[in-house]
Amino acid sequence: MFNDIGPLELVTIVVIAVLVFGPDKLPKVIQDVTRTIRKIREFSESAKQDIRSELGPEFKDFEFEDLNPKTFIRKQLDNDELGLKEIRNGFDLKKEMAEVTDAVNVRDSEASSSSSSPSPSSSSGGHIDMTKKPEEPGKDDRPPFDADAT
After folding, report:
1. Within a domain: residue 109?
2. Where is region (Disordered) located (predicted)?
3. What distance in Å separates the CA atoms of residue 28 and residue 25, rounded to the nearest whole number?
């Protein structure tokens, strides 16, 4: 329960306890606190035993720490009845992402090399070069004018 309290924190707690309760009442307060902690532990253990007895014999090895999702998954990975280690080791996310990125880059380069006039977005592998000035359309690039359409 107090595994993470260092010596400096313990001394600080003792000094504060002496200042708050005084040296005369401090032993009685310590006894009361330890008695309360002991009762809470006994209540907790009896509740665990009641739950285990109600679950039945098929849950005799049930541990309440297994209710923590991290502990449950770690236990299942160590058990490996489902073959999860093989699946986990066979899946490399970095490799998969690199393959997808390479495939997209190859498609972009093929699309830009196959088109007759590359667009600004496909000329640099999917990036727009803002330093280039846009090309001026010539007279041949204009759509035909239709007087009746307007």
Report:
1. no
2. 105-150
3. 6
DSSP at 135: P
Q: Does residue 29 fall inside a structural domain?
A: yes
Q: Mean pLDDT over residues 120-133, rounded?
A: 55
> Longest Cα pair distance anywhere in the chain, in angstroms?
107
pTM above 0.90, yes or no: no
Q: Which string of DSSP letters, residue by residue, matches 74-109?
A: HHHHHH-SS-HHHHHHH--HHHHHHHHHHHHHHHHH
**Above 70 in pLDDT, residue 129?**
no
Residue 23 in domain: yes
**Count of domains observed in the chain:** 1
- Domain range for residue 46? 1-56
Cβ-proximal residues to 55 (8 Å cutoff; 6+ apart), any chain: 62
Q: Is residue 70 part of a domain?
A: no
